[in-house]
Amino acid sequence: MIRFYHSAHSRSGTVAMAIEEMGLSAEIETKIVSVARQDGSGGPDAANPHPEKKVPALEVDGTLMTERAAILALLSELFPDAPTAVPPGHPERGPFLMWLAYYAGVVEPLIMGMVCEVADNPIWVTTYRDMGAMTARMEAALEGQDYLLESGFSAADLIMASPYQWNRDWLPKVPVIETWFDRVNARPAVQAVVARETA
């Protein structure tokens, strides 16, 4: 039994998109839970097993997983034959895991640092890099290919695109990155989840 805990209009939409993209909607039960929001609405939900009452959370046969990058990696292990899976043994498993970790360890902190106006602090830059370095890394990866992995679309693209779905203004103004983002957003699974969550 696999159960996915999700809150509509949250960044756990990345995992919902991956589940849709991999064709796993019938295999994974989705539970919608309430979470605290920045506008003061919502709040802790007793039905949510996440220890901090956040989302996403994935329960696999009674074992709880949290954190988007870890959940996306696990889904590719549990369903190695699903479309877009990058399971252990895949030639690009290493780069796939690298992009998941890069998002969690570099991209999200940089964007939050920018929003909180601390991203220029030397300690911040030394620890997380800066927006220019991140942009250069993405631009180099996308040069000459449609997605971050040479083998094609994966959940790495979903997680790396996720902050820009919240605010397109944060997207680096580089043609190859903008084209990649539009390509990810145009995917039917992404559109299906967006339509469901904005209905």
Mean pLDDT: 92
Structural class: alpha+beta
Shape: globular
The total count of helices amounts to 8
**Rounded Rg:** 17 Å
SSE run: EHEEEHHHHHHH
* C-alpha termini separation: 28 Å
Largest sheet: 4 strands, mixed
Helix content class: 40-55%
Low-confidence stretches are: none
Structure in words:
The chain has 199 residues and is of the alpha+beta class. The chain has eight helices and four strands. It has helices spanning 13-21, 68-78, 93-115, 122-128, 131-142, 155-166, 175-185, 188-197, and strands at 2-6, 29-32, 57-60, 63-66. It has a four-stranded mixed sheet, with helices on one face. Helix 1 links the parallel strand 1 and strand 2.
Describe this protein with a few key phrases.
single chain; about 200 residues; alpha+beta; four-stranded mixed beta sheet; 8 helices; about 50% helix
What would you say about this model in short?
By secondary structure, the protein is α+β, with helices and mostly antiparallel strands. It is 48% helix and 9% strand.
Q: What is the topology?
A:
Elements: E1 2-6, H1 13-21, E2 29-32, E3 57-60, E4 63-66, H2 68-78, H3 93-115, H4 122-128, H5 131-142, H6 155-166, H7 175-185, H8 188-197
Parallel strand pairs: 1-2
Antiparallel strand pairs: 1-3, 3-4
